[in-house]
Amino acid sequence: MEREIICGEAGERIDVFLRRVLGYSRQFIKKLIDEGNIKVNEKEIKPSYILNLGDKISLMIEEKEENNLKLDDILIYEDDDIMVINKPSGLLVHPTDENWMKDISALKFNRKTLAYMIYKERGAKIYGLERLGLVHRLDAETSGVMVVAKNRHSQISLYKQFYERRVSKNYKALCIGIIDNDEVLIDAPIGRFTGRKKLDVMEYGKDAITRIKVIERGNRNTYIDVFPLTGRTNQIRVHLSFIKHPILGDRIYSKTSFERLMLHSYSIVFMHPSKNKMVSFIAQMDEDFLKKIKENL
To answer: Which of the residues 80, 139, 182, 187 is marked catalytic?
Structure first.
């Protein structure tokens, strides 16, 4: 049990009451209630439950939500300034809501995230850092290299390098169809049309540039190196879909039902925040990714 609250007033919905008391969004509170993490008088309730005077509200953590993966299992490099990790496919970087940024303890309800792993295993060293030192992110389905800041100086340095486009990244991807040219430069702005969640190439979007080099052509698909020269959300996925060669397994931009997204963040190069030299890190592809490349070229 993490917390108990005794209701001092009657007549208010529990999701409205907890939003006011805890500061969490109603959507997040509804998620906790639906998953059985919030009970009233030791009984499960609905988000529409009307509170009575003296009701005992319990916020609980289910141990089954524990993520067995440890930070050391995916750690590539660590010093006093940075951590570099190889994020597995399927691991969410941080919760999709913003409650964890308002109250770090909300991460206990989102244990299957990289943010929770950092909070649990390195928290004492980086408490107080904005976003727990996360200076960039990967989609949950994308695997590969990420860098995390461990102090304010490193975080500011890395933020600046990403903003000024001084961080070089290389991805490996298996895309649908055969790309004819050995190299392709995609210069197409990305934005979101009104009323749509999905990003698209659009005339008045933000500038986005991606360079592609063919590694190997198969009978059906093409294995490629991808170099994003800008850092727009979903840039690689949007650009490859735009040239009619979406990534295999991309359920949003290709609508394929493959087992996983065949996109891996392979390497990253940046200026070390305190060593004043360029550093490069590689995240090796897992056996499953390599196997699927061979089987689906």
So the answer is: 139
How confident is the model over 241-283, as pLDDT tens digits? 999 999 999 988 887 789 899 999 999 999 999 998 999 999 9
Q: Do 170 and 248 belong together in one domain?
A: yes
- The span from the CA of 65 to the CA of 34, in Å, is 14
Of 60, 91, 106, which residue constitutes the final position of a domain? 60
**In sequence order, what DSSP letters do the residues of 61-72 get, joined into one string?**
--GGG-----GG
Phi first, then psi: give them for residue 293, nearest 5 degrees.
-65, -50
Closest by CA to 174, choosing from 292, 253, 262, is 262
pTM of the model: 0.78
- Structure token digits, residue 170: 């290389």
**139 is an active site residue:** yes
Q: What residues pair up with 147 in beta bridges, in sequence order? A: 84
Residue 196 exposure: Cα atoms within 13 Å on the Cβ side:
10
Domain encompassing residue 46:
3-60
